[in-house]
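Obj.: predict assembly geometry.
Materials: sequence records (below).
Method: joint structure prediction, all chains together.
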Amino acid sequence: MNPLEHREASAGLLPLLEELAAFGADPEGGVTRLLYTKPWAEAQHFLAGRMRQAGLSARFDRAGNLFGRLEGTEAGADVILTGSHVDTVVRGGKYDGAYGIAAGIAALAYLSRTFGAPKRTLEVVSFCEEEGSRFPVAYWGSGHVCGRQDWTLADAASDPDGITLREAMETVGFGAPEQPDCRRSDLAAYVELHIEQGIVLERGGERIGIVETIVGQRRYAVTLAGESNHAGTTPMGLRKDALAGAAEMIAALEAMALEQGDPLVATVGRLDAEPNTPNVVAGRVRFTLDIRLDREEKLARFCTLALARFESIAARRGLAFEAVNWLATAPAPMDASLAALLERAGEAAGLTHRRMVSGAGHDAQLMGGLCPSAMLFVPSRGGISHSPDEYTTPAQLEDGVRVLAAALYELAYR
Ligand code: HGY
Ligand code: MN
Ligand code: MN
Ligand code: MN
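Observations (raw structure tokens):
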């Protein structure tokens, strides 16, 4: 067996993915592993153990990012990093994020076992948070590694139960000033293996995808304040109904997005009405806004027009309107030479491949501002993700690890 075919790279991957999925397994199906919750902490400490078992040293930084390290022989050489995020959405799948971490651990263990110590140090990271599913902040892990995150948000951001990010972080033992700083300046490259979360590969029949650009993203928290009132005695014309106002805004947003056309997407994924009671006109509504496009100026313009439309709806209805911008990422081009390396590795493994845009946001989007970064996709069945039905076959999962191992070999051993 020619070790350079890296056929053994995925040894241990599948059981590791299953064990990881148990942390936050939702009785309704899927996985819910939100930042700084008990399942999150248990998963990170479990992964630290698996990294050490794989012969890596493991350490946490102040935000709870976990790094497994395979020391290189060339002192002072910058580090080659792979990995992804350990957090999930509510009732998400078992592959989003987790696959990139498990694959990185499997690949580093395989490379070390097969080729010994690398010239350049290899690390696999389990970023603490990427989704923005518990707190309005997203990319809390990679954002701090890149120096693009703001610690003061830890006190400004609260979850739906009113717990601040800092309180949650300290509850699971992170956020202490004496803990290692998150900022890295010693990275030569970042390569992230991830499920596609879309249907392009399955439709095209290719085995792997090489990401050229990750779309830009804006996230807002919108608050509408009207007047709670009696559902039976308040005439329609005298209401300041925050829920009816939100409904008009959401319908207007969808119409604007359809008019703009693909690939722009606009989503209201979370809505909380107060007092959320059948016989009370809603006095306050908070909802989230997630807008994405691969063109920065068009994305910014769409957001401006949408928020202006919301303001005019609110004014007409006598509602107070506030939109707080929690995330603004520009479209992120991936590193061309790393993309070419992944393509060559795919060819060498005899896998069909295509270049593509990622409609999903990823840690590589932020890492690309710090060091040359690239992303490798494997197919998602039916394009489904952020759902308990997220699925990728074992053979497809193993394809990805083979290509990742080949790319890491080129980057760290040659
Ligand atoms: O929302 C996203 O695109 C990513 O999965 N965080
Ligand atoms: Mn996700
Ligand atoms: Mn992800
Ligand atoms: Mn993502």
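Conclusions so far: DSSP finds twelve helices and 16 strands in the chain.
To do: check interface contacts against the pulldown list.
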